[in-house]
Design a protein that fits this description.
Number of domains of chain A: 3
Strand order of the largest sheet of chain A: 2-1-3-4-5-11
Strand content of chain A: 15-25%
Distance between the termini of chain A: 65 Å
Number of strands of chain A: 12
CATH architecture of the largest domain in chain A: 3-Layer(aba) Sandwich
Oligomer: homodimer
Radius of gyration of chain A: 26 Å
DNA sequence: AATATTTACGAAAACATTTTCGTAAATATT
DNA sequence: AATATTTACGAAAATGTTTTCGTAAATATT
């Protein structure tokens, strides 16, 4: 395991360090014969240029960070999948950071990333994030950023999301068409732009169908599982009970299923349920779950593509732009289909 | 966005670069007064030491790689969750690489990682991996490695897995106790040690209960979803049909559910199903799914802990050791409970 | 007062690359 | 034959840290 670097290779070949470096980069300055000798020895010694030295000199790391709230979540897992695929294609490396929906953690991660470790960031903000100074600081250091899904509109850069408003409208309208009269909206956090857009779509659908909006039917469930369970239970045990639920995220729908199990409510007869979800087994649930499926994989790919394009073109800041990919509604038994 | 580094700070303060560096590291060589001045300016200028320069000099990166077959998989998602948690605690950074169960990709990733980018690796090998030279090469470069879940026993290092044999035995025995007579084993790949152990447990259970082992009931399903579907369909349509299925991974169980839907077979009456799985919604399936739940989060944490401990103690190679965390069997309707 | 020790800092090497620039020799051009 | 150009390489600077070692001044010890 004797160390091998440009210096040792050069010494062994009786040429200079720069010659070895250039030969390995297939530079026109080096004769074919020398290149051969260098490449052969490098291969034999299993030489790999030290990326930290080379990044330092080149002033680029070919590394990006992905900051997401969680990973045990089908949407984020698929999105990361897409990101990683594009990263491998472009020979970039992907650092992963989980905020667990904590604002403090998100800030701390952004602090850490100001140390030249990365060229760019793909980010989905936490539900608790209410400002954006930590993100602005990051960009001040010349780090490119692209948001996906959970964005902050105050930051001027590219944002890849799904058509949350329209999908929210469609999901709600679907419930109405299936006969629902009192539809509840289960919210994750009013700080999240996507949540607000889905809710806006929900309200638009009510308006369109002349259903009066009842603020009591908008339930802030939060991140904590047990808290969400409680809120939903309260909702489903309150007088003049709701007959349908539109959950802004999958977790809130599955919690609804659990609550119904406990209360003995039958889906879809007693309660219709639809939600944003990327689970692959929606059709196997009891009853099968109607979902709004986000193109998670595509969202990840697009976000990564935009970032890498700009990274290759150097120093060009990313224009403020909303890329919107369509979700698709899949109706199943939970809404009476 | 004028650049700020030790040099510019030193110039502005009228001291040397080394003084600034030492002051920021709170070295005893620097007076309190100077430290104050340095720290204040550094804060004001929002200075972060360049990690590539510092890694180069220190010869450690505080970065690890996690290599897994896929991420849209509850087991790996939870494991990565555990890894990331421990990494953040220890101030390490986590690079993620997906092999998509391709041997070529796994090799290529290992090649890339020989460039001094990382100090250590946590790895779950792909189902197609049949040798281990690429892994040995990595270790030759002085990179520490810990396996989790999908291990290669030929490599001498720590391996964190679950009690696959015993759990396989328990799962099979559970099926037998529930009245199953002809139990099939759905295998992912005979190249995987965990798969073989689960299968060995299955065979042991048959032996114990005097059930003759029928090789036709061991179905190699592979990674491809449609192929798995086909194999399972063949199994369930063949004469003298099996009455129970033990799936080595979740995906094969959900495929089984799909096949049963198509064939109109009723679980658990026509077919009992149990599988290794980490899905959080097993209880919501139709029918609810009996699972062997691996402590995925803990496995990730343990593997990361072992790696970091050795990284801190420098150069100490990791002893060959099998750490086995117990899985727990949760019986539900799919096995008639 | 002479010597020893401590304090507080700076110069420079080291980490492993990449890249600019200089140049000797070989070849081409007039 | 004299000059211009090309070829093939090397020296050295640069990237931004960390760390070793040297040392002048201040303080302590005899």
């Amino acid at each position: 395991m004797s160390k091998v670097n440009l210096k040792t290779l050069a010494a062994e070949l009786g040429v200079s360090v720069s010659t070895v470096s250039k030969a390995l980069q297939n530079s026109y300055e080096i004769s074919e014969e020398t290149k051969q000798r260098v490449v052969t020895l490098a291969k034999q010694r299993n030489f790999r240029p030290n990326v930290y030295a080379s990044s330092l000199r080149r002033q680029q790391t070919r590394t990006i960070a992905v900051i997401v709230p969680e990973i045990a979540n089908n949407f984020f897992a698929f999105a990361i999948n897409g990101i990683e695929e594009i990263a491998q294609e472009n020979d970039y490396h992907v650092l992963i950071y989980l905020t667990h929906d904590s604002y403090e953690k998100e800030v701390s991660i952004c602090e850490h990333l100001q140390s030249g470790r990365i060229d760019g960031v793909l980010m989905s903000v936490s539900t608790e994030t209410n400002d954006y100074e930590h993100i602005a600081k990051l960009m001040d250091k010349g780090i490119l950023l692209v948001f996906f899904d959970r964005v902050r509109h105050e930051i001027e850069t590219a944002k890849v999301t799904t058509d949350d408003f329209v999908s929210g409208l469609n999901a709600t309208e679907h419930l109405i068409e299936q006969g629902a009269k009192r539809i509840a909206y289960l919210s994750l956090s009013s700080k999240l732009s996507i949540d607000n857009k889905r809710k806006a779509g929900y309200m638009e659908a009510l308006l369109k169908h002349n259903i009066e909006f009842d603020p009591n039917l908008v339930v802030a469930c939060g991140n904590q599982q047990h808290e969400a369970y409680q809120r939903i239970k309260e909702l489903l045990t309150s007088p003049n009970r709701t007959d349908a639920v539109f959950a802004s995220v999958e977790k809130l729908a599955t919690e609804t299923y659990m609550v119904c199990q406990e209360l003995g409510l039958k889906i879809p007869n007693d309660l219709k349920v639809i939600c944003f979800s990327n689970t692959t087994i929606a059709s196997l649930l009891n009853p099968s779950l109607s979902t709004v499926v986000q193109p998670a994989f595509e969202i990840g790919k697009q976000a990564a593509n935009i970032l890498f394009q700009h990274l290759e073109r150097k120093n060009i800041s990313i224009l403020n732009e909303n890329i919107i990919l369509k979700s698709v509604l899949v109706a199943r038994e939970s809404t009476g289909c």
